[in-house]
Amino acid sequence: MQTQRTALVVGANGGIGQETCSALLRHGWQVRALVRRAPEGEQHGIDWRIGDAMHCADVAAAGTGVDVIVHAVNPPGYRGWDRLVLPMIDNTIAAARVHGARIVLPGTVYNYGPDAFPLLREDAPQHPQTRKGEIRVAMEQRLQAASEAGVRALVLRCGDFFGPRPGNNWFAQGLMQAGKPVKRLSYPGDYAIGHSWAYLPDVAETLARLLDREKELARFERFHFGGYWADGQAMLDAVRRGSGDDSIKAARFPWWLAQLMSPFNETMRELCKMRYLWREPVQLDDRKLKAFLGGDIYTPIDQAVRASLIGAGCIAASSEHALLTA
């Protein structure tokens, strides 16, 4: 009889952390969550541990007896990456080494530069254009070095996250204003250029499915999550359908304002550095992932966008019922 597996999710209050907890519970895992503050209200099935990912002892204590550590923690609003990101991954690596756990890292496209565009494979060269990208490369390099010393690691690289839980992402805080009806879509790039989007529940479900077959994974394993390859017009159309409002206008994200604010606002400053990802097509090649799991991975985009609009408070949940029964 197989003993129930246990996963520690570091950063369980974030968007990917919350969704990963839910997906792992559905797949029969015991879930432990390391957070600085437990969420209010009853959270069925999750063993909450209070601690700080910056404290090695906190991560090590929370990781006692676990099979997997999901490293889902990021500084909010792009702030403090130079000070925080690498020490946190080092603490996760240290805990995984002590407890024999596999590390799971939800990755990004930040670690790629234009020389790898437009179609990114798992082994594409990593020549980032920004300091955040360099840090992402360093995170993966540390995981790979740890794997050579016996630590198992899984990296799932994704495009821009969005989903039904409120969060710090382009969809809810850039394209539109959370909590308000959508009147215009403030798209950050050319409407004709394709972009990769990752629906968080699908990312989390994919991670859970990969971990169901953990014994088949390489010691250091990488997959690309293709998600939705959509240009600005396709995303505008999906938002119009999801909200039931064909009058939503196509607009441009005010980069000039972000640039003006950047000397005084770290989030805006770091946001401007990532603009290059909106100037060219950037697509993740997911053939390896589909070959391993099968092709049925992604929620239909209209369903994903509709759920995300509800989560962002841009439409009421009753609107979803009306659209489905119309």
UniProtKB/TrEMBL annotation:
InterPro entries: Epimerase_deHydtase, Lipid_A_modif_metabolic_enz, NAD(P)-bd_dom_sf
Classification of source organism: Bacteria, Pseudomonadati, Pseudomonadota, Gammaproteobacteria, Lysobacterales
Protein name: NAD-dependent epimerase/dehydratase family protein
Cited Gene3D superfamilies: NAD(P)-binding Rossmann-like Domain
Pfam families in the record: Epimerase (PF01370)
Signal sequence residues: none
Source taxon at top rank: Bacteria
Domain NAD-dependent epimerase/dehydratase, residue spans: 7-218
